[in-house]
Specification:
Blueprint lengths: L4 H16 L4 H9 L6 H4 L21 H54 L3 H56 L17 H7 L12
Helix pairs in contact: 1-2, 1-4, 4-5
Keywords: Coiled coil, Signal
Length: 213
Amino acid sequence: MKFSIAVLSSILAICSVTIANPVDPSSTMSSAASTPTASTSATSTDGPTSSVFSPNNAGCDSFDQEGIDLIEAYANIKMVLDTEHKKSDQKESDAGEYTKLIDKKMKKLELLEQKAQESNEAVDYTTKISQVKSETEAYRAILKTLKDELNTLYHEYLEWHGEWRKLRVALYDYLKKHDSTGEMAGDTPLLKSIPEFMQCFVKFYNGPPDLLQ
């Protein structure tokens, strides 16, 4: 799989905007995929004569323009995925806390209602019961909002994950094609285990190149 310069440029632009203002990638990535293609090999200048995996070159100097474009696009879309993942984790944590708060309020409400039945001062308990019910409903409203946001994030993540998988295949194809050291032979290695790739990757994103668990 080979991405054109136009498609890679679209991915970079979309990712940079999404990090600041997350959007539904289904509408944006489809337009990027339909952009007229132009062969990178036909438009780029001559690449380095040394191996893509040459240990003597620092940063991205080991890669030609096609490789650098792929790595930059991959780094940007990986940044979006990690951002979405962390947002989801935070909202799941918040939802868990509000679920606990609601459970506590419900137990308190049950206790107050029981005491109200046993007490001659039912009016005092009625006020407290009303307050607890109001607080519980407020927590439930917040919890519903969090769950709705989680659902939206989940579907956005799935869309971005699909685009990430396509770009990952293209990146591995490129690395295998230009590998003269045998480093890419056999089982597919984790990207973080390829020093030359990491030297270039960290110039665009200081996070992990492989998926967060």
